[in-house]
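User: I'm designing a mutation panel for Cytochrome b561 and want to avoid disrupting the core. Could you give me a predicted structure to guide residue selection? Please restate the sequence first so the numbering is unambiguous.

Assistant: Good idea. Sequence first, for numbering, then the predicted C-alpha coordinates:
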Amino acid sequence: MTRRRATILLHWLVTLLLILMMSDGERFAWLTWGFIVACLCFAAIGLVFGLMTKPGPKLTGIVRRAHPWLHRAMYWLMAACALIVGAEALGHATPGVTGSLAQMVLFSAASLHAIYHLWRHTALRDNALRIITPRALHKYL
Protein backbone atom coordinates (compact mmCIF):
# COMPACT_ATOMS: atom_id res chain seq x y z
CA MET A 1 0.00 0.00 0.00
CA THR A 2 1.36 3.39 -0.93
CA ARG A 3 1.71 6.17 1.60
CA ARG A 4 -1.00 8.13 -0.19
CA ARG A 5 -3.49 5.27 0.03
CA ALA A 6 -2.62 4.58 3.67
CA THR A 7 -3.08 8.26 4.52
CA ILE A 8 -6.44 8.45 2.75
CA LEU A 9 -7.64 5.23 4.37
CA LEU A 10 -6.58 6.32 7.85
CA HIS A 11 -8.01 9.83 7.37
CA TRP A 12 -11.50 8.51 6.66
CA LEU A 13 -11.21 5.64 9.16
CA VAL A 14 -10.31 8.05 11.97
CA THR A 15 -13.18 10.33 10.92
CA LEU A 16 -15.68 7.47 11.02
CA LEU A 17 -14.33 6.04 14.29
CA LEU A 18 -14.37 9.47 15.95
CA ILE A 19 -18.04 9.92 15.06
CA LEU A 20 -18.86 6.42 16.31
CA MET A 21 -16.88 6.96 19.51
CA MET A 22 -18.72 10.19 20.24
CA SER A 23 -22.06 8.41 19.83
CA ASP A 24 -21.47 6.23 22.91
CA GLY A 25 -18.85 4.07 21.24
CA GLU A 26 -16.88 3.74 24.46
CA ARG A 27 -19.18 0.83 25.33
CA PHE A 28 -17.35 -1.26 22.74
CA ALA A 29 -13.72 -2.05 23.53
CA TRP A 30 -12.94 -2.97 19.92
CA LEU A 31 -14.16 0.43 18.75
CA THR A 32 -12.12 2.25 21.39
CA TRP A 33 -8.94 0.36 20.53
CA GLY A 34 -9.59 0.68 16.79
CA PHE A 35 -9.85 4.45 17.25
CA ILE A 36 -6.64 4.56 19.31
CA VAL A 37 -4.63 2.44 16.86
CA ALA A 38 -5.95 4.29 13.77
CA CYS A 39 -5.21 7.70 15.33
CA LEU A 40 -1.70 6.73 16.40
CA CYS A 41 -0.88 5.16 13.02
CA PHE A 42 -2.21 8.20 11.15
CA ALA A 43 -0.36 10.61 13.44
CA ALA A 44 2.85 8.57 13.17
CA ILE A 45 2.76 8.66 9.36
CA GLY A 46 2.20 12.42 9.38
CA LEU A 47 4.72 13.26 12.09
CA VAL A 48 7.49 10.89 10.95
CA PHE A 49 7.24 11.24 7.17
CA GLY A 50 5.86 14.77 7.04
CA LEU A 51 2.82 16.14 5.29
CA MET A 52 1.64 14.44 2.13
CA THR A 53 1.29 17.70 0.20
CA LYS A 54 2.35 21.31 0.27
CA PRO A 55 0.01 24.32 0.26
CA GLY A 56 -1.55 24.84 -3.15
CA PRO A 57 -0.40 27.73 -5.35
CA LYS A 58 -3.71 29.55 -4.88
CA LEU A 59 -3.13 29.89 -1.13
CA THR A 60 -1.37 33.16 -0.34
CA GLY A 61 -0.16 35.17 2.61
CA ILE A 62 -0.74 34.04 6.15
CA VAL A 63 -3.04 31.20 5.07
CA ARG A 64 -0.21 29.71 3.02
CA ARG A 65 2.28 30.05 5.88
CA ALA A 66 -0.18 28.62 8.42
CA HIS A 67 -1.23 25.64 6.28
CA PRO A 68 1.55 23.18 7.24
CA TRP A 69 1.53 24.20 10.89
CA LEU A 70 -2.21 23.77 11.23
CA HIS A 71 -1.97 20.30 9.70
CA ARG A 72 0.85 19.37 12.07
CA ALA A 73 -1.29 20.63 14.95
CA MET A 74 -4.09 18.31 13.79
CA TYR A 75 -1.69 15.36 13.89
CA TRP A 76 -0.54 16.28 17.41
CA LEU A 77 -4.12 16.78 18.56
CA MET A 78 -5.11 13.42 17.12
CA ALA A 79 -2.20 11.69 18.87
CA ALA A 80 -3.02 13.42 22.17
CA CYS A 81 -6.67 12.40 21.89
CA ALA A 82 -5.68 8.79 21.23
CA LEU A 83 -3.33 8.76 24.23
CA ILE A 84 -5.98 10.26 26.53
CA VAL A 85 -8.64 7.80 25.37
CA GLY A 86 -6.09 4.98 25.69
CA ALA A 87 -5.17 6.00 29.22
CA GLU A 88 -8.85 5.97 30.19
CA ALA A 89 -9.35 2.59 28.52
CA LEU A 90 -6.52 1.21 30.66
CA GLY A 91 -8.06 2.69 33.80
CA HIS A 92 -5.69 5.62 34.27
CA ALA A 93 -7.13 9.04 35.00
CA THR A 94 -5.87 12.01 33.03
CA PRO A 95 -5.93 15.12 35.23
CA GLY A 96 -8.29 17.78 33.91
CA VAL A 97 -9.05 16.16 30.56
CA THR A 98 -11.43 13.29 29.91
CA GLY A 99 -11.54 11.15 26.80
CA SER A 100 -14.92 12.62 25.92
CA LEU A 101 -13.58 16.16 26.15
CA ALA A 102 -10.54 15.24 24.04
CA GLN A 103 -12.84 13.72 21.42
CA MET A 104 -15.03 16.84 21.37
CA VAL A 105 -11.97 19.05 20.93
CA LEU A 106 -10.67 16.81 18.12
CA PHE A 107 -14.11 16.77 16.47
CA SER A 108 -14.34 20.58 16.68
CA ALA A 109 -10.88 20.99 15.16
CA ALA A 110 -11.71 18.41 12.47
CA SER A 111 -14.90 20.30 11.63
CA LEU A 112 -12.95 23.55 11.17
CA HIS A 113 -10.41 21.59 9.12
CA ALA A 114 -13.20 20.28 6.87
CA ILE A 115 -14.75 23.74 6.45
CA TYR A 116 -11.34 25.15 5.50
CA HIS A 117 -10.81 22.49 2.83
CA LEU A 118 -14.36 22.87 1.50
CA TRP A 119 -13.66 26.61 1.20
CA ARG A 120 -10.42 25.88 -0.65
CA HIS A 121 -12.14 23.45 -2.99
CA THR A 122 -15.11 25.70 -3.78
CA ALA A 123 -13.91 29.30 -3.43
CA LEU A 124 -10.33 28.89 -4.64
CA ARG A 125 -11.18 26.02 -6.99
CA ASP A 126 -7.85 24.35 -6.23
CA ASN A 127 -9.28 20.81 -6.02
CA ALA A 128 -8.17 20.47 -2.40
CA LEU A 129 -10.63 17.64 -1.79
CA ARG A 130 -9.07 15.48 -4.50
CA ILE A 131 -5.95 15.13 -2.37
CA ILE A 132 -7.69 13.24 0.42
CA THR A 133 -10.59 11.50 -1.33
CA PRO A 134 -10.28 8.10 -3.00
CA ARG A 135 -9.79 8.33 -6.76
CA ALA A 136 -13.13 6.62 -7.37
CA LEU A 137 -14.86 9.73 -5.99
CA HIS A 138 -12.91 12.31 -8.03
CA LYS A 139 -15.50 12.37 -10.82
CA TYR A 140 -18.05 13.72 -8.32
CA LEU A 141 -15.85 16.57 -7.07
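For picking mutation sites, this is relevant: DSSP finds five helices and no strands in the chain. Residues 58 and 131 are 15 Å apart (CA to CA).
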